[in-house]
Design a protein that fits this description.
Blueprint lengths: L10 H50 L5 E2 L2 E2 L3 E8 L11 E8 L2 E10 L5 E2 L3 E5 L10 E6 L5 E4 L5 E3 L1
Antiparallel strand pairs: 1-2, 3-4, 3-7, 4-5, 6-8, 8-9, 9-10
Length: 162
């Protein structure tokens, strides 16, 4: 016959098991949160890269835009801007793009919000050559709220995320 005293768990054993379960749950929650933040940052960077490639394609394909009756004659370049920067502003997550023509600037993209978590730390001003889609110089962008990620462009028109 089995003794009932020897078949039960002690209070200490139960506390140790619950502590181990709590510790493992806490570690997995932290890992999941870090994964979530990293994925959100990657989405922001990819959104920016996609918008930049879209505007680059317009420059490369010599798209002469028409906006509010203004017609572009003599395409000089495309220009991508974010006039504001810093965590305190609301437009730091948006860009505007202009086709710079002999007759003036024509708005192509009006304050497209591309970030959900990140924001521009500095004002953005990118020039893209028509016909080739190349950038007038090498640009390196570090975005606030995103650690260890940079967006780089080169004069050949390449965009890379590192």
């Amino acid at each position: 016959m089995m003794d009932m005293k020897n078949s039960a768990f002690t209070l200490i054993e139960l506390i140790v098991v619950i502590a181990v379960i709590a510790l493992l749950s806490g570690m997995s929650l932290v890992t999941y949160t870090q994964f979530n933040v990293r994925q959100s940052a990657l989405n922001d960077v990819r959104n920016f890269e996609t918008e930049l490639r879209k505007i680059q394609a317009m420059a490369k394909n010599l798209v002469y835009p028409i906006y509010d009756g203004n017609r572009c004659d003599g395409l000089v370049k495309y220009n991508v801007k974010s006039d504001k920067s810093g965590a305190s502003c609301s437009d730091c997550q948006s860009i505007s793009a202009y086709a710079v023509c002999n007759s003036g600037e024509i708005l192509v993209v009006n304050q497209e919000k591309i970030f959900s978590k990140a924001y521009f730390s500095d004002s953005l001003n990118i020039d893209i050559e028509p016909g080739t889609g190349s950038f007038t110089k090498n640009y390196v962008f570090s975005l606030e709220n995103i650690n260890d990620m940079e967006i780089k462009t080169d004069e050949n028109g390449n965009i890379s995320v590192q």
